[in-house]
């Protein structure tokens, strides 16, 4: 408890920005706790960190922390973060987004940030809904689930964020639920330390809108569901495809070394200068 209190006073704007706007039982508080524990262990100072977000429930996170912060427009957090990283590669840039923010209006930016392997850490809080704007279905809402924009059930199939990140070329991809809070902060720490584009998907819950609409119970019941369906990567390798239906694989999905965009950009810049007469 003493260590937790120390982190609260070290990293949170506890005397300025609280109480927070999140609903009782929301998973965003767990994600925020995991984030500050990961940053504390990583060894970076508060001045080293830039926390960038877009719009949505998760987008409020930079308001509560004592880092360099940037609260941007819907779906464009990665583009702002890219600009920050290119302007000052020394900074450790972390981008917090929701599932709709990152993969709907921001989907193209997400794919190409992964493809370029920009040295950013993308933390995506996936609660399967647009919580801030009324509970509309998002790209990750399960097939058949109810939403304010799908009163007879969603007929679109959900997008898998972590698998998309792997396919698009991210150097590191991890996934956890907010129930597995210790695993979550370990994955975030690994993503921060990784050189290249790192994606951590945090499977969360929205008891106020998504849970209530789909009669999933309150926060405790929704957390227990996460516990029940989560399967560690190592165990998943021993299971059949049929056994994995309805399950969520958690842990490190991929960890690979790839050319980092900022380093490659410096190489091209130096080569152009050496060619003579080119000023960049």
Note the topology:
Elements: H1 2-11, H2 28-42, E1 49-53, E2 68-71, H3 77-87, E3 92-98, H4 99-103, H5 107-116, E4 121-126, E5 129-130, E6 136-137, H6 161-168, E7 172-177, H7 181-193, E8 198-203, H8 207-213, H9 219-229, E9 230-232, H10 233-236, E10 248-255, H11 261-274
Parallel strand pairs: 1-2, 1-3, 3-4, 4-8, 7-8, 9-10
Antiparallel strand pairs: 5-6, 7-10
Helix pairs in contact: 2-7, 5-6
What features would you describe in this structure?
This protein has 280 residues and is of the alpha/beta class. The protein has a single domain, classed as Rossmann fold (3-Layer(aba) Sandwich). The strands form two sheets. It has an eight-stranded mixed beta sheet, sandwiched between helices. A two-stranded antiparallel sheet has the order 5-6. Helix 2 packs across helix 7 and helix 5 crosses helix 6. The protein starts with a helix and ends in a 6-residue tail after the last helix. The model has no long low-confidence stretch (mean pLDDT 94).
Task: Determine the CATH topology.
Answer: Rossmann fold
Main sheet properties: 8 strands, mixed
> Whole-number radius of gyration?
19 Å
- Helix % is 25-40%
Number of strands: 10
- Domains counted in the coordinates: how many? 1
Strand content: 15-25%
Strand order of the largest sheet: 2-1-3-4-8-7-10-9
